[in-house]
Amino acid sequence: MNDFDFLVGTWDVTNRRLADFLDGASGWEEFPAVTRASRHFGGGASFDEIEFPTRGFAGLTVRLYDREREEWSLYWSSSTTGTLFPPVVGRFTGGRGEFHGDDTYAGRPIRARFVWSGVTEDSARWEQAFSTDGGATWLTNWIMELSRR
Question: Could you write out the DSSP letters of every residue in 14-62?
């Protein structure tokens, strides 16, 4: 519990993502965002809303801690779909959070991985990677560098 307490507050975010999440040669897009996060359930839940002003959409993340399994489930929703994506599940170990889940992208089954690292009082890094071979290989397709506002 309390692993996401660092995120409480407002952050400026520099995004880099592949134009096509499954094609490493598709080229990187860069754009800004602002996220606002809050803590709930005594540190057992975390919520943030991220706005991408130059992209015309926003997203929400709900993170819930399962005390029995001692792991987090992270749920993402985008204003473009209005639905919750399947969760990624995992935990922090040694200052690094790693979370995995099954999903689809462009009609193809994928394994998704989110990684939180480099967490300090004023900065953090989030990465998303997809695997089309059950996790044998990963393609990092979205990186967020967060700076506390």
Answer: EEEEESSTT-TTS-EEEEEEEEEEEEEGGGTEEEEEEEETTTTEEEEEE
Three-state secondary structure call for residue 60 = strand
In this prediction the pTM is: 0.94
Q: Would you give per-residue pLDDT tens digits along the chain (149 residues)?
A: 899 999 999 999 999 999 999 999 999 999 999 999 999 999 999 999 999 999 999 999 999 999 999 999 999 999 999 999 999 999 999 999 999 999 999 999 999 999 999 999 999 999 999 999 999 999 999 999 999 99
Question: Tell me: domain 5-22+29-148, CATH 3.30.70.260, correct?
Answer: no
